Amino acid sequence: MSLREINNELYKKEPDSEFLQHEKSEFNPKSIVFTSSKNTSETKDEWMEKKDGIGKESQKTIKIGAIILGALLLVVALVVGFYKIKQSFFVSERMAISIDGPKEIKSGNLSTYEIRYKNDNRADLKNVQLKLSYPEDFKPEGNADFNPEGAVSGVFKLGDVSDNDEKKVVFNGRAYSPKGNLIKIKAEISYTPSTISSVFVASDQVLVSVISAPITLEVMAPQNISSNDELNYLITYKNEGAENLENIRVKVGYPERFVFSSANPNAFEGNNIWYVGNLTSGQSGKIVVTGKLEGNRDEVKTARVIIGANNNGEFVNYNEEDVQTKIISSPLAITQTVNDLHSINANAGDSLRFEIKYKNEGTLGLRDVIVTERIDSPVLDYSTLDTLGGSYDVNTKTITWKASDYDELKNLAPGQGGTIKFSVKVKNVIPVANANDKNFIISSLAKIDSPDIPTPISMNKIISGNKMDIKLNSKLVLAVNGYYNDHKIPNSGPIPPRVGEETTYTMHFIASNISNDIEGAKVEAVLPTSVTMTDKIFPEGSPLAYNERTNSVVWTIGNLSAGTGVGSLGKEVAFQVKIKPSPNQAGDEAPLLKESIFSAKDLFTGENISAKIGDKSTRLMEDSVLGATGYEVAN
What we know:
By secondary structure, this protein is mainly beta. It starts with a helix and ends in an 18-residue tail after the last strand.
């Protein structure tokens, strides 16, 4: 059998049952018979098809698959092509933003900036927002549709921007910043192209220099002083702008270990804030702050002064200046005490005993030494001044001691020192005319000098000094009056009072506060055992409490302003008491009230202060109807 016939037999479509039968039997090549039911030409074509591995049906399937694959590739190509064409409608670089406006501005003046944006794409832009960022000292003003987002940013909601469209936003504001400051304004525009779902951002910024402030500010202080010496800060300001300014305030940041003494004018808040109010164009003013400065040798102390406006509860800085003072040692040392203390508060009527100690702490002798003491206050009674030598100048309020008063001042050797004493009294009646007459200070400045003290080049001559500020406690005044004939609370019972019968009286507490604001003010008194309080009080509802077990009366006043009762009636309360005299009181006046105490805390000095008034009896001289009679108890 030929090879073709064997192939035809092997690849025929009928099941190879005969071949399987032979496979089960013993292999015998001679027994194998190959037969074919087809002619030779058919066998050849079929064998060729088998040889190629693809049948007619398979060819048909492949053709259909190729057509489907081609269609899919065409669809993908169309989608990708469409997407690429759609993408070409938007390019982020074609969205531009720019800020146009002044690069130099004057603090306080209105500045205008134009933020231009252009969509140079064929696609529209959706949800366009323009965010502006700026420092705290730049305040937007007069911007329609601007939505602030805190103190340093805000947003314009621009909506949609058409393709190939160009627009602008006008942004106004004022810089409230000292001269020389740089202000950065940043514009950031965000949007979503109509052809893409992503969010894009474009930005621009501008740096603006503040070339001038609307208010000029100058601060002057000594370049050099000795520790504990007096120091004055002179603050001058002026509105150099064309516009009037409102709500102007001055704030001073004092250096460490600066002890405030006084200021002219007085501070509006604490001891470092002044309310100037309106400052018209060209208007100027000044503030003088006095105190003493302590520090170590060669230490530099810096004070900062800021002037600005109170804008909607927020302080806006217009200008600021620093001033420095250096602590320099002097070969001469001087200290002073009052009533043997380095710090003291005084009361009306007090006697003040000053003691000044001085010493040459250098290595060289000093000649012609002079000691001075400037002591100035409207509450001092200068008629009582005892300088114990020396000379007092009424115009400068200065006492001067020279070698003619103390021999050792002629030549003060190294390590040598001495003591000078003087005294003066505080007035009993404090001069208070209006509400501004408060918080009195007795300022004393002791200085020592010699022509032999060297003066460093480019420096002030250092004259050693020591300053003390004696604060005056407010004077409390309490009046206790009693009446039988009272128009506020009517009374009853026999006059003069009679043994075994009940008579009522009206007692009045009148509290006055002279020179400082006080808090926690109250009046306390105790009734004698034979006296009781009724339930009648005027004005009704007044904070006056009666403890029947202790027989005590407490009137709670609270806060009381300086000057209360000066030129007008003080704080007053009235209450009724009753007595029933006993036989042993016959022929004598009957007690109505024991000692009364008016106490409070002085908010200026921080000291607890008080005033006392003695007992009160039926001898009521203030009741003009009773007069000098009618007070003795009758049988």
